[in-house]
Structures are given as structure tokens and as C-alpha cells.
Amino acid sequence: MSQHRRPIVVRRKKAASHHGSHGSWKIAYADFMTAMMAFFLVMWLLAGTSKAEFEQISEYFRTPLKVALAGGDRNSASNSAIPGGGDDVMHTDGERSRITIEQNSGMAADMSALSRLKARLEALMQEDPALRDLRSQMRLDLTPEGLRIQLVDSQRRPMFEVGSARVAPYMHRILTAIAPLLNELPNKLTLSGHTDDLPFAAGLRGYSNWELSADRANASRRELVAGGLEPEKLLRVIGMADTMNMPGEEDSALNRRISILVLNSRAQKMMEQENMAPGTPAVIDSDQPPASIDALTRDGSSTTNAAGSEQVAAQ
Asked: What is the DSSP annotation of 104-143?
């Protein structure tokens, strides 16, 4: 045996690689052609779409979640080209449901803001030592029209001089104190003067309780403005005479009072639309169709500006 062994060489052949699949490019090309066909189809459809149809389509895609939750057919008008809610495809039930939800939400927010203002006024009367003794002559309550603030008279502490519109110091103190708080909300106000049912000696032909109640309302308005109330917030100042006595207090001094009403949104709209031209559509509730002022008047929604009476003790 030879002492020099020959080296053993092992050769391993690499497996031949197959260069790609012959069909994959066809799939990619088909996807590309499909996308291009869809693109040109959309462009062709848009070219023949009117502006009104554009708005309807954009409305549908802008608020799909709101439509689904509220049950309405779209976010704004009723005559949608793409119905989307309610049992009736003509948008009746679905949109009415959506409007009811939004309206209730707005009323709740309005009431919450007025309730907070009521709490602020009560806190002001309690914390200010100069006003604490007058708290019994301020009455606060929430009504269907808004927050009503009543400043009532008393036998021992009248708000005005007898038979006069001259403001007493107590009344001046209250009005100037609450004026800044009334600016905190955007809601407008009405201010009405009330008297008792005792007539003037000269009767209704001369200066009567109608004039007295209106003069007292205007005197209170001047005090509020002097205390910082923005003048444009006042929507109405009226005299009510003795036409609206307090329940169960027909012969009481409490009927001699000033009533400040912080209007809610619905009541404010009704008052602002009273002077519209006859036949002009007036929208009070968003879930009701527009009504004319004539129709509202027939339904008794117009407010009567009445005024009431108080006697100056003759002799």
C-alpha cells in the first residue's frame, strides 16, 4: 500500500432553481386592470351626476353612524335619494325618531343650564349678608318657558313706594346684584310688572294700574341695566296689572311683584317669530312641519300683553 493516500474529493450538485411562476404576473395584471376599469367607471358616473345628487351622496357617506343609531334616513333634509332608516322608505318614521332624539337632547341641555343659573342665584342670596334677609321676597322656579325669577312685595318691606314706580332701596339692591348673573347665559329675558286688584281713585280713564305695572317694569329694567345687564338681552317689557294673580293669593301683597323670565330656546323662538309677516313659515319645534303665523295664532300660541292693578290708598 502506498504511503501517500490520494485525497477524496466529494462533489455536491446544487438543485437547479425554478425562476418564478409563469402565472403570478397574470394575477397582478388582472387586479390592475380591474382597478383601472372601476376608476374609469366611477369617473364616467361622476361626469353625469348633478349637483343635487352630489349633495345627497355626500350626505349619505358623511353621517352613516348617526343615521344607523338614530334610525333616520339622513342628517338633514327629508327627501333623500338614498333611504337609510325607518320602516317607511319614504323617510317618515326613521327621521322623526332622529329628530326626537336631537330635540330631547337640546331641551335637556337648556334645562340644565337654567337649573345651574337658579342654583347660582340661590347661592348669591344666601352668601351675601345684605341680600340674605331679602331671600323670602325672591321666588325662583322652572316653568315650561324657562327660569322665572319673581321679586314679590310684602307689607313690611315694599319693593316700590306706594302707588309709584320709584324703586325702594331693597329692590335696587336685589336687581343690581342679580344683573351680572343674567349675562352668563345667551338666553333672552322678558320682564313684567304686576299689581294687586285695588283700583286707583280716578278709575281706568286716568292713570291706572296698567300704567303703574308697566312703569314699574321699566323702572326695574333700568335698574338691571345699571347693574350690568346687557340691554340687548331684554326681549319684552310689559305691564300685566292684576290679570295674573299668584295662585291662592288673590288679596295678598305678594301680587305686587316683578317677574323676570329667562327664556328657554323654544319660548324665545316663539316670541321672536310673533312679528313675522302673515303666512311666513315659522318653525317652533324641529319635529313639526313649518307653520304660518296665522296658524299659530289660531292655535292660541300668541302671548297676550296684559297688565294689572294696584290702588293708591286714597285719602
From this structure: HHHHHHHHHHHHHHHHHHHHHHHH-HHHHTTGGGEEEEEE
Which three cell numbers, joined as nine digits, stand for 13? 450538485
Task: Tell me which of 43-47, 249-253, 270-274 is least confident.
Answer: 249-253
For residue range 52-66, what is the model confidence (pLDDT) as tens digits? 787 777 776 665 555
Nearby residues of 43 by Cβ (< 8 Å), 6 or more positions away: none
Measured CA to CA, the distance from residue 268 to residue 207 in angstroms comes to: 32
Tell me how far apart the alpha carbons of residues 90 and 206 are, in angstroms, rounded to a whole number. Answer: 62
Question: Alpha helices of the chain — where are they, by DSSP H?
Answer: 24-47, 51-62, 64-70, 92-127, 129-132, 169-182, 209-226, 265-272, 293-298
Residue 304 and residue 238 in contact, taking contact as beta carbons nearer than 8 Å: no
Long-range contact pairs involving 227-231 (C-beta distance under 8 Å, separation at least 24): 227/175, 227/176, 227/177, 227/178, 227/179, 227/180, 228/176, 228/179, 228/180, 228/183, 229/179, 229/180, 229/182, 229/183, 230/183
pTM: 0.58
**What are the pLDDT digits (tens) for 245-263?**
888 777 777 888 999 999 9
Q: In order of start, what are the domains of the chain with their CATH numbers?
A: 50-112 (no CATH), 128-298 (3.30.1330.60)
User: What's the Rg (C-alpha) of the chain?
Assistant: 37
What are residue 244's phi and psi, to 5 degrees?
Answer: -135, 75
The pLDDT tens digits of the residues spanning 292-310 come to 444 444 444 333 333 333 4
10 Å CB burial of residue 19 (0-12, 13-18, 19+) is: exposed
Measured CA distances, 186 to 136, 139, 152, 164, 229 (Å): 28, 22, 26, 32, 12
CA distance 60 to 65: 10
Residue whose C-alpha is closest to residue 93's, from 74, 71, 76, 68: 71
